[in-house]
From TrEMBL:
<dbReference type="InterPro" id="IPR055362">
    <property type="entry name" value="PTHB1_pf_dom"/>
</dbReference>
<dbReference type="Pfam" id="PF14728">
    <property type="entry name" value="PTHB1_GAE"/>
</dbReference>
<feature type="domain" description="PTHB1 platform">
    <location>
        <begin position="502"/>
        <end position="609"/>
    </location>
</feature>
<dbReference type="Pfam" id="PF23338">
    <property type="entry name" value="PTHB1_hp"/>
</dbReference>
<dbReference type="Pfam" id="PF23337">
    <property type="entry name" value="PTHB1_pf"/>
</dbReference>
<feature type="domain" description="PTHB1 C-terminal helix bundle">
    <location>
        <begin position="716"/>
        <end position="791"/>
    </location>
</feature>
<dbReference type="Pfam" id="PF23339">
    <property type="entry name" value="PTHB1_CtH"/>
</dbReference>
<keyword id="KW-0175">Coiled coil</keyword>
<dbReference type="InterPro" id="IPR028074">
    <property type="entry name" value="PHTB1_GAE_dom"/>
</dbReference>
<feature type="coiled-coil region">
    <location>
        <begin position="371"/>
        <end position="398"/>
    </location>
</feature>
<feature type="domain" description="PTHB1 hairpin">
    <location>
        <begin position="611"/>
        <end position="714"/>
    </location>
</feature>
<dbReference type="GO" id="GO:0034464">
    <property type="term" value="C:BBSome"/>
</dbReference>
<dbReference type="Pfam" id="PF14727">
    <property type="entry name" value="PHTB1_N"/>
</dbReference>
<dbReference type="InterPro" id="IPR028073">
    <property type="entry name" value="PHTB1_N_dom"/>
</dbReference>
<feature type="domain" description="PTHB1 N-terminal">
    <location>
        <begin position="1"/>
        <end position="363"/>
    </location>
</feature>
<dbReference type="InterPro" id="IPR055363">
    <property type="entry name" value="PTHB1_hp_dom"/>
</dbReference>
<feature type="domain" description="PTHB1 GAE">
    <location>
        <begin position="412"/>
        <end position="499"/>
    </location>
</feature>
Length: 851
């Protein structure tokens, strides 16, 4: 903020709810008084024309009635006002007023008053031109080097330059490559017009080139304005400034080089007459208007630049010399000579705040009033202090009372678990980076941590929270921590540690349900264990009826019931959704294994003798594949609509660029309709993508369940289960380019032709080397059924038949559950060469991790 404010010399507010812009302000001796004092001419978009001659008694006075010389309503919006020698036969100054479809030239004159009311001023219409095209702005000057008079050039909204030789129309020319009008000015030194096109480049056109580029069918009637199209003009010079311009000004001072100034949206340019850049200034604010006003030192030019921060900056070339605060945002600024006071800054805002100010540091006349001294009454102060302490004491007593609130705030309570991870280093670890990964739709509050270098025997600890983010349950409750670091010799290394999240994160206990669509029975070789023992976090010890029956309510809304047989060694899991059986079944088996392991029972085993729920599994596959097909349809429709949208845009742009615009033929309506279709298709595609993610998560849960049931049914070894998981779960994410269906189909087909083949003839068949999205899922479902059938007939999973492609399947040996407490710790040790056989640990290249 500026240290100094602009000193208010005279100001007023023009009208009520009127609008003003850059061309609405002009200062000149419009009444030809010869006194050298300028008058302020202001026009508004409401059609009011006002002329002021400020005479404040003292600086800062408001407007006096005699300051307003003239106020008249012209009934049409005033786009621009200029003062020049616009009438033939005289060199007196006249006022040119530009309307949307009309150019009017007035003579302003005053009559000496014989009474105390003062002089009287009036305007007289000298001539007017009715325009056939909508005007945008205008400029004036001695076009073609004429002496003693000024010609006017008007730029229309469609890019036509209409030139008037005072009372008569001269000719009109269209600017080449025109799209939108820009600022326009005339350079008398080179006899050329300078503008900034919509291509963001400054262009200069010679007046002689405009004049000689005559129409093919030259006419002298007034209808020529409408019919003239002109030949293609040749630009004199072009300079690309890379931004739109707000204003252009051509100046010539005695002590400075003649220059062309261009004010852009973020930069301020000074050009030579041939278009070369003299200098430019990058602005750190958004400018609103400017004016070069004088040359103080030889070779330099002073410029005023107003901005949207209500600041007015004074530059000497590119050096900021002064900054002052204005009470409004200026849209136009001028420098005038008023009442023998030279260099008054005249500013106008868009809502009509007209101010004449000057720069200076006049001292403020305000003095702080003297404080009346009085004697202190300590008794009153003590009584007031006791009263205040009583009020504070009463307020603190009612802090715990909840008051009824009328407003309703909708918020969902999301359970979360806090995980504490500790990194211990036995060697020097440089630039350690910790990444925490969980299965979507689970999410963490922070998944990346960067630490400073760790010294030997030092540690770092981080705390984060894991929560469910989505409307479906995850397929896994396991997470991983990966630490990447470098040794002092520059060797990169990685340490990893897995952890298992508690089941309570995604579900909570509820009333059990007797009816269910899907039921599974797991057989064991040990008597059933009470749920009070293996599910203490879900069972209330005071309720004995929960010892053999337990209900789980998922956060997504579905329910699952777990039952333990009282007479046999069986457990039943039932639910309305097939995918919801997976996590409860897995948690049951893990807790049973941990229970018997604590009791040193090594012969505990589970088995499954029922039928594999393939039909229900196939329904989830069909649902996922249907959504993938929908995604392809949406992509094709979006591509078609995008092509159509671009084609309509090109046609509209061609119509707008045409020198004789033709009717749009409802192209704008078609463009709007196509745009709405594109937006609707994009929203539908986005919603379908979210549905694909949910369907794939459910499919992975059901696939885990099928793999577990097959392994229990056929009593598969660890290596065989690894092959099974690699076959049915090859992808971590599902995409349109490589989907689950074609990948699993290829893997099962490979097993059916190798280890599960019936004859050498099947082994000789070759598989397709390219994976593509199938037309339907019939082949996949047939192969899965055949896969289970051959396992039931004694087939065994093995990769030994093809030693060239054999790979070691590395499976985690186990994961330790995060307890149901609010805080759980995991420790990663860097630099150890030991092997840890338990709790998801690996050791490779001198790095050991354990949890």
């Amino acid at each position: 903020m500026s240290l100094f404010k602009a000193r208010d010399w005279w100001s007023t507010i023009l009208g009520e709810k009127e609008e003003f812009d850059q061309g609405c302000l002009c200062v000149a001796d419009v009444d030809n008084s010869g006194s050298g004092q300028d008058k302020i001419i202001v026009g508004s978009y409401m059609g009011y024309l006002r002329i002021f001659n400020p005479h404040p008694m003292k600086p800062g006075d408001g407007v006096q009635p005699e300051d307003l010389l003239l106020e008249v309503q012209l009934r049409e919006p005033i786009l621009q006002v200029e003062v020049g020698k616009f009438v033939s036969g005289t060199e007196g100054l006249h006022l040119a007023v530009l309307h949307c479809r009309k150019l009017c030239v007035y003579a302003v004159s005053g009559t000496l008053g014989n009474v105390e009311h003062g002089n009287q001023y009036q305007i007289k219409l000298m001539y007017e031109h009715n325009l056939q095209r909508t005007a945008c702005n205008m400029t004036y000057g001695p076009f073609g080097g004429v002496k003693g008079r000024d010609l006017i050039c008007i730029q229309s909204m469609d890019g036509m330059l209409m030139l008037f030789e005072q009372e008569s129309y001269a000719f009109g020319r269209f600017l080449p490559g025109f799209l939108l009008p820009g600022p326009l000015t005339y350079n008398s030194r080179t006899d050329s017009f300078i503008t900034v096109s919509s291509c963001r480049q400054v262009e200069s056109y010679k007046y002689q080139v405009l004049a000689f580029a005559t129409d093919a069918d030259e006419r002298q009637e007034p209808e020529q304005q409408k019919l003239s199209s002109g030949k293609r003009l040749v630009v004199d010079w072009v300079l690309n400034i890379g931004e739109q311009a707000l204003d252009i000004c051509v100046v010539s001072f005695n002590q400075a080089v003649s220059s062309v100034f261009v004010l852009g949206e973020r930069n301020f340019f000074c050009l030579k007459d041939n278009g070369q850049i003299r200098f430019m200034k990058k602005l750190d604010y958004s400018p609103s208007c400017f004016i070069p006003y004088c040359s103080v030192e030889e070779g330099t030019i002073n410029t005023l630049i107003g901005n949207h921060g209500k600041m007015l900056n004074v530059y000497q070339d590119v050096t900021l010399k002064w900054a002052t605060q204005l009470p409004h945002i200026p849209v136009s600024v001028k420098v005038a000579n008023l009442q023998d006071l030279k260099g008054v800054i005249v500013t106008l805002s868009d809502n009509g705040h007209l101010q004449c100010s000057y720069l200076g540091t006049d001292p403020s006349l305000f003095q702080a009033p003297r404080v009346d001294s009085r004697e202190i009454n300590y008794e009153e102060f003590n009584a007031e202090m006791k009263e205040l302490q009583k009020i504070i004491k009463e307020a603190t007593k009612t802090q715990g009372i909840l008051l009824p609130i009328d407003s309703e705030v909708k918020a969902e309570a999301v359970p979360s678990v806090t995980v504490k991870i500790t990194i211990q280093s036995r060697v020097t670890a440089q630039k350690p980076n910790l990444a925490v990964c969980v299965q979507a739709p689970l999410a963490v509050t922070c998944d990346q941590f960067i630490f400073d270098d760790l010294e030997p025997d030092s540690s770092e600890t981080v705390v984060l929270s894991v929560f469910l983010k989505g409307s479906c349950s995850p397929s896994e409750l396991e997470g991983s921590c990966v630490v990447s670091y470098s040794t002092p010799t520059g060797i990169p290394k990685v340490a990893q540690c897995n952890f298992r999240l508690p089941l309570r994160l995604i579900c909570f206990p509820t009333q059990s349900s007797k009816a269910a669509n899907h039921k599974l029975t797991i057989d064991t070789n040990k008597p059933p264990i009470s749920f009070l023992t293996i599910f203490p976090d879900f069972v209330d010890p005071s309720e004995d009826d929960q010892a053999n029956v337990l209900g789980f309510q998922f956060l997504t809304g579905s329910k699952t019931t777990l039952l333990a047989s009282k007479t046999s060694q069986r457990y039943r899991i039932q639910s309305d959704q097939l995918e919801d059986l997976w996590l409860i079944t897995k948690e049951l088996m893990l807790r049973l294994e941990e229970h018997f392991k604590k009791q040193n029972c090594k012969d505990f085993a589970c088995s499954f003798s029922g039928s594999i729920p393939l039909q229900e599994y196939f329904e989830l596959i069909d649902r996922h594949f249907e959504l993938r097909l929908n995604a392809e349809k949406f992509q094709e429709l979006l591509s078609e609509r995008a092509v159509q949208f671009r084609a309509i845009e090109r046609r509209l742009l061609t119509r707008f660029k045409d020198k004789t615009p033709a009717p749009l033929q409802h192209l704008d309506t078609l463009l709007e309709g196509t745009f709405r279709e594109v937006i609707a298709l994009a929203d539908a595609a986005e919603e379908n993508q979210a549905n694909i993610f949910q369907a794939f998560t459910k499919l992975k849960s059901a696939t885990h369940l099928v793999i577990m049931l097959i392994s229990l049914w056929q009593k598969l070894s660890t290596d065989q289960v690894a092959i099974l998981e690699a076959t049915f779960l090859p992808l971590a994410e599902d995409t349109q380019e490589l989907g689950w269906e074609e990948t699993v189909d290829a893997a099962i087909s490979y097993l059916l032709r190798t280890c599960l083949s019936k004859s050498s003839k099947e082994q000789a068949l070759t598989l397709s080397s390219q994976l593509c999205m199938p037309k339907d899922t019939s082949r996949l479902k047939k192969n899965i059924t055949l896969f289970c059938d051959r396992l039931a007939k004694g087939g065994r999973l093995s990769l030994s038949t093809d030693s060239a492609t054999q790979q070691a399947a590395v499976m985690p040996g186990g994961c330790t559950t995060i307890t149901e407490s609010d805080l759980e710790e995991r420790t990663v040790i860097l630099g150890s060469t030991a092997m840890f056989p338990t709790n998801c640990c690996t050791a490779r290249q001198g790095v050991g991790i354990y949890s």
